[in-house]
Amino acid sequence: MLAVVVVFAIVLPFALNAAQLATATFVVIAAIGATGLNVVTGYAGQISLGHAAFLGVGAYTGAVLGADHGVTAFIWIPAAGVVAALLGAVVGPVALRLRGLYLAIVTLGLIFIAQHVFFNLDGLTGGPQGRAFPAVQLASFDFSPGQVLDLGGITIDSSGLYYFLGLILLAAATAFAWNLRRTRSGRAMVALREREAAAAVMGINVGRLKVTAFVVSSAMAGVSGALYGSYLSFAQPDQWSLLLSIQFIAAIIVGGLGTTAGPVLGCAVVFALPSLLKQLPFLPEEGSGGLSAGDLTSITYGLLIVAFLTLEPRGLVGIANRLRRTGNGSDVGSSVTPKLTVTTPEEAHP
Amino acid sequence: MTQFLQLLFQGVALGATYALIALGFVVVYRASGVINFAQGAMLLAGAYTISWLATDVGVPFLPAVLAAVALLALAGAGFQIAVLRRVSGEPTFVLVMITIGAGIAVTSLMEALFGTDPRLLGDPWGSTSFAVGDVTINWVKVWGIVVTCAALAAYFCFDRYTRWGLATQATAEDEEATLSLGVPVRRVHLITWAMAGALATLGGLFLAGFPASPQPSIGDAALRAFPAIVLGGLRSPTGAVVGGLVIGLTEVMTSGYAPSSLGDNFYAVAPYIAMILILLVRPYGLFGRAPAERL
Amino acid sequence: MLEVRDLTLRFGTICAFEGVSFDVARGELLAVIGPNGAGKSSLFNALSCVYRPQKGTVRLEGEDMLALRPRQLAGRGVARSFQNLGLVGELTALENVLIGRDHLMRAGALRGGLGLARAEEREHRAAAKLALRKVGIEDLAGRVVGTLPYGHRKRVELARCVAMQPRLMLLDEPVAGMSAAERADMTALLRRLHRDEGLTLLLVEHDMGVVMQLADRVLVLDFGRPIAVGSPAEIQNDDRVIRAYLGEELEQTA
User: What three-state secondary structure class fits B32?
Assistant: First the structure.
């Protein structure tokens, strides 16, 4: 099964046209960040509406190191992850003091504060006008648009290069998350999500675990953001918005919270959506008023979130499992929905 | 000094509007434990509906407001029936995400229907004002404060003195037990969401008043009401009022006095920073209580 | 081993329990019983550092327990079970038991994610399997807990406690909600664990039959005050206890 997926992923770019490849590349890059969000929200049950802030921090780290200081991508990509992780280490302790919905709203504040900082640090971020981001340069490979790599007859263009780099990093992130889930920290995170009060008495260091979850999540987001900015080659601060955070949340919900394949599947749906919708025949011309593709996209995100949570909280993975079960007739996988028990602050039943 | 008094008045007026919005959250949360992230969208829809009725359709202002309140109340109740009732057993996170999703959908729908340019609200007050000493008092803001007080008083009476208020409190305490006592819990939820819709409309009306106007950015302003509810402790209408005033004053005062070194538009993030600082000291808001957990 | 002196817990003006003193010797099984509302669960929660008593001391082999935070309990060798079952439904039985091993494990997220903690994982999986075997459900290791019947889930919970390698186990109504057959099985299991493993156990329990079969000594609470301490036979015949239960038969239930 895994082999099939790997082969499919490697062969895919050659079967797509330029526009489709661009979409696929975005999906792969975004999936790295989504994998991180899946750790903090899917495994550990901590709502984070602030994911876009970590993406932005990673992106600007990459830009400053790569473009302003001419550092190689071998350094600025990991550095983006590290700097974002540091921010995650600052936010994590906040999660200790605050539960559930309070935490969600504080992470909402994080987005606005981050955007405010991005808008005003124009030396680093280019202010409201935005700035250019460096193309990846690994050894002799230049990923700039227009560059082409020739591997004994097979040509890979700039998009393809980003795709494969993203794929490698995505594979690494997914492997990390998969391992995590099967070891001590992962189990503890799930216990934290389901039974926070009991978890402490069972010996779990809840505080450290929450910080760890945020650090892992934001590190992945940082790398994702750096690649994202680099691929876009130009971005403005309002890019790292609440809507972007929500797209990531939608992705992990649609894909399946806490699952391994969920982040990729969800990103495939969420980030391919705009280009799919643009092709709908009944949309009016851009700018002529009425229903724009952007509005339709947002409406669809909203409806998707509502639909999946109402009908299939286990996401696409849940649907796939259900189909497999009815096909085999055997009990594949858990029939228990992961419960993100957001402990509402005043669940006082004296 | 004049500037201070001017800002004080504006802060109170804005605070009153935030209190109104916060009350809409508290109403829903108290009854069902759901934080309605779609409140901002409902606000926007309320403001646009009033604007549309008053300017495009030509309905006189007060009936337009009443009609919009009724429409949004119906929409809120409708949302409850069509979606929330189906998922009532799910964990709170799911319900919250559903409201987020619905919020996005509605906000975008508003943009699609009404475009992004500012519109006329159609209110009779416009930019009219009177002076108290050197301080300009805008009529629309005065009415904002009045309506907020009226809404709070009405809610207070509902909560304390009516059957439905009691039913709501009982549902909030223990839904299953209340249901088993024969209380029509479904109707309680309907009423709750209808009230949320109504309050959102009124909040939207005043957020869209002079010097603002009905446009998409009101939705963001509504998000600034979140710190108000967090500060207030999520369950307490009094908390909503205090939280709203604190946030409104914080926002206006920082817009007047913040040094430029803190960046442009610092007032937009000041509420969140204030909220975070207060939460670090009191993790359950100014009025919240720590939950008692059953192990 | 466990010394409780003059423990008092109040919630505002309501007194959960008052002046509770007792000892538990190493290897002993002490049961705490009493009518509903007697304060048993509150006492339990106080001993597991969930509530802070206003007065009194608790010493485990000389160490002050009340100064601890809940998460330090495991490290000090105290394991407790939960009425609502501290189990995670979507994890397997083995994974749930492994959560009990968390405080004994060293690997952090970094080593875990990079796959560098394999040896430690293996070691603790073996210990977890052993705990499941002691509790008699080793063959259920790979089953998802959410799909297991209640009786088996309670055993998983028990296995988790055993896997924590505790000095003292606090069991909160271990046979609550069980059928007669399940109760008999659980009682036999607990007796085996107590005798063969030499575990020190403190039980809160309603079921008199179970208590009479298992306990070395019994502490009776009524309205938050201790009214008697002694062997099961002594308690059965104690006038104060009989009065407290007023009308309840203290004969052994089958």
Answer: helix
> Residue B86 and residue A339: Cβ atoms within 8 Å?
no
| Nearest 10 degrees: Cα torsion A242, A247, A248, A254 | 140
- In the predicted structure, residue B156 carries a pLDDT above the cut 80: yes
CA atoms within 13 A on the CB side of A320: 13
CB atoms near residue B294 (< 10 Å): 12
Nearest to C223 by CA among C19, C5, C81, C3: C19
Q: What is the band of C33 on the pLDDT scale with cuts at 50, 70, 90?
A: confident
**CB-nearest partner of B234 from A289, A296, A345:** A345
Cis peptide leading into B211, omega within 30 of 0? yes
What number is the average pLDDT over the span B131-139? 82
User: Model-level pTM?
Assistant: 0.85
Q: Which long-range contacts (CB under 8 A, 24 or more apart) does C146-149 make?
A: C146/A334, C146/A335, C146/A336, C146/C89, C146/C90, C147/A331, C147/A334, C147/A335, C147/A336, C148/C93
More confident residue, B176 or B81: B81
* A20 pLDDT tier (thresholds 50, 70, 90): confident
Cβ neighbours of B50 (radius 10 Å) = 29
Task: Quickly count: other Cβ atoms within 10 Å of residue A44's Cβ.
Answer: 29
**Percent of chain B at pLDDT above 90?**
2
Closest residue to A187, CB basis, from C70, C91, C114? C91
- C202's enclosing H/E stretch is strand C200-204
Residues in A touching C159 (Cβ below 8 Å): none
CB A124 within 8 A of CB A83: no
How high is the ipTM of this complex?
0.86
How many angstroms separate the CA of residue B236 from the nearest CA in chain C?
A: 22
Q: How far does B55 lie from chain A, in Å, by closest CA? A: 19
Residue A342 predicted with pLDDT over 50: no
How far apart CA A51 and CA A55 sit, in angstroms, is 7
CA distance A94 to B280: 8
Average pLDDT of the residues of chain C: 86
Tell me whether strands C2-11 and C14-24 are parallel, antiparallel or unpaired: antiparallel
Q: How far is B231 from chain A (nearest CA, A)?
A: 10
Q: Which chain C residues touch A185 with a CB distance below 8 Å?
A: 107-109, 112-113
Does an H or E element contain C225, and which?
A: strand C225-230
At A349, is the pLDDT very low, low, confident or very high (cuts 50, 70, 90)? very low
Mean pLDDT of B51-68: 86
Contact A191 C107 (CB under 8 A): no
Of A139-148, C62-71, C180-189, the poorest mean pLDDT is in: A139-148
Q: Which residue of C has its CA nearest to B293?
A: C50
For residue A154, what pLDDT is reported?
Answer: 76
Q: Rounded to the nearest 5°, which phi and psi values hold at C34?
A: 160, 160
Which residues on C lie below 8 Å from B295 (Cβ)? 45, 50, 82-84
CB C160 within 8 A of CB C192: no
- pLDDT tens digits for range A180-216: 999 999 999 999 888 888 888 888 998 899 999 999 9
Beta-carbon contacts of residue A234 (< 8 Å; ≥ 6 apart): A130, A131, A132, A133
| CA-based nearest residue in chain B for residue A93 | B280
Candidate from A102, A291, A313 with C-beta closest to B279: A102
User: Of the candidates C80, C90, C114, which has its C-beta nearest A176's C-beta?
Assistant: C114
Crossing angle of the two packed helices B2-32 and B185-207, in degrees rounded to 10: 160
**In the complex, which subunits touch B with 3 or more CB pairs below 8 angstroms?**
A, C
- If you measure CA to CA, which chain B residue comes closest to A117? B263
Contacts of A200 in chain C (CB under 8 A): 69-71
